[in-house]
Fold:
Amino acid sequence: MNKNEITSWDKVRATFQKIWGYDDFRPPQGEIVQALLSKQDALIVLPTGGGKSICFQLPALLSTGLTLVVSPLVALMENQVQELCDRNLPAALLHSELPTHQRRQTLQTLARQQLRLLYLSPETLLSAPVWEKLCQPQLEINGLILDEAHCLVQWGDTFRPAYRRLGAVRPTLLKYKPQGTKISIAAFTATADPSTQQTIRNVLQLKQPKVFLISPYRQNLHLKVQTVWTSRGRRQQMLQFIQARTPQTGLVYVRSRRDSEELAGWFTAKGYAAAAYHAGLNPEERRQREASWLSGKTQFVVCTSAFGMGINKPDVRWVVHFQSPQLLSEYIQEVGRGGRDGKPTHALTLISEPTGWLNPEDKQRQEFFAAKLRSQSQDAQRLVKQLPTQGNLATVARQFPDGAIALALLHSAGQLEWLDPFHYRQQSLAKSGSLAKLSTTQKLVHKQMSQYLHTRNCRWQFLLQAFGFTQEAVGFKCGRCDNCLRS
Structure:
């Protein structure tokens, strides 16, 4: 380090201490901040509670120009922007639920270059009014952050196809900016196995990214999977688990809005301070329920995967999965919301007995999702034959209701490239076989979750292996999960 670098790093640390009040960075926060300040592309896999948001917020606040933060959930954006605004920092958000006057106001602030951080979803980023503003030559953009980057892989093919177009954002924006402009891209996530990491690199077109991979293992997190034999038994096992931990704070994860409402009502009738939380609530209800849980008025939230991303509550002592997630990446995200203070925390997952005769819930859910995947793949294969070999997304979406998803699936199968975020070209005549192969890959990802639930080995060993920490996994035993305790 030369003298200037030392001075500037002192300034970085001083700003960090002034805004967040911590004495120093936790490893590897400092190195990540350095990489982003030097405008390097980066891929960061940092466990839940590892302080990811500081790693991109600090460089954005220290740079001139705008940093775009692409985020999957409104609740996540609202929490992060609220925290920044409470500290009087130049940040804003844009999403479809905002009142028109607020959107207009934010776009005006953006045009006047008064923002350092702008949070938005992939869909909002690629909406005409926002995209038009971002392409203005005078608007300085220094970076694109993809927060919760695993969502690109989890949702990009079928649920949120806009994720698949993000790789075309940087090259297209650069065409409108002064020569020599540099826009870096950094992808942040708590969970990404080697295959997910590769997909993120490819889709975002990362250039020689600096990679930070931190093991997901958390010594204080005790994992357990329990078989239940009836629907009533499932509720009773959960109730016993929570009764033994009252009045400790916790989370109950379910897979549908209906279950969220029903179970929260059931617990409330039993005298528990519980609340439902899902994407169907309006923003005011969401914030109210989050605040009540964060302050300790609500003991636990019965929630879908819409809850928890970016919400920091250190003293969550237990997490129940009333039904198991479909994906291992979801599971590790959700259990990781417990025990951020480093104290012992218990995570329980309830699963149906293996035959599905007495308690068919899990089997029915798996069959439903498998049928949905099959149907989407078949629809896409039929559509592919009708799609023009090159064209405009808006035209295709108008003509075919599932056109955007078909294009995302083609891109995922390596059969299509985005010329910019709105125009595509099929690279070769798309073969239905490539989509069938993609469907098989998706099935394998779902199978991995099932293997975890039924493994007899150390659960953390399985997770380390699954997320690419193969050396650490050799002979590993946590000594605290149900399998280790049993053996």
User: Anything to note?
Assistant: The longest helix spans residues 361-384. Residues 4 and 305 are 46 Å apart (CA to CA). The chain has 21 helices and 16 strands. The mean pLDDT is 89.
